[in-house]
Design brief:
- This protein has strands at about 1-5, 10, 15-25, 35-40, 45-50, 55-60, 65-70, 75-80, 90-95, 100, 105-110.
- The chain is mostly beta strands.
Length: about 110
């Protein structure tokens, strides 16, 4: 199984980024997916969830109304669109399903 994230970078507060995750090696459409983030010295926290069919989504309270998770089962991708970014959104963002993880992509929100 390979999971690869992309799209991170440096953005000013109030800005936007779109993260993308590509998955191979498993029956992608059968698996729910999550985006997580981790700040050095803190535990990894889940940010957003999407069901295998894409009909159900959930978000951590701090990102509700600002982040949107979506998936394309034909392309085997899951995206995280992030708006109104804040310094506290800074961290390494990971895409995962069950015990499978990507290597992460760094998001830095700073002026």
């Amino acid at each position: 199984v390979q999971i690869r994230e992309s799209g991170g970078g440096l953005v000013q507060p109030g800005g936007s980024l779109r993260l993308s995750c590509t998955v191979s090696g498993l029956a992608f459409s059968a698996y729910p997916m999550r985006w997580w983030r981790q700040v050095p010295g803190q535990e990894r926290e889940w940010v957003a969830y999407i069901s295998n069919g894409g009909l159900s989504t959930e978000y951590i309270d701090s990102v509700k109304g600002r982040f949107t998770i979506s998936r394309d089962n034909a392309q085997r991708t899951v995206d995280l669109e992030m708006h109104d970014l804040r310094p506290q959104d800074t961290g390494v963002y990971y895409c995962s399903t069950y015990n499978y993880w990507g290597q992460g992509t760094q998001v830095t929100v700073s002026s």
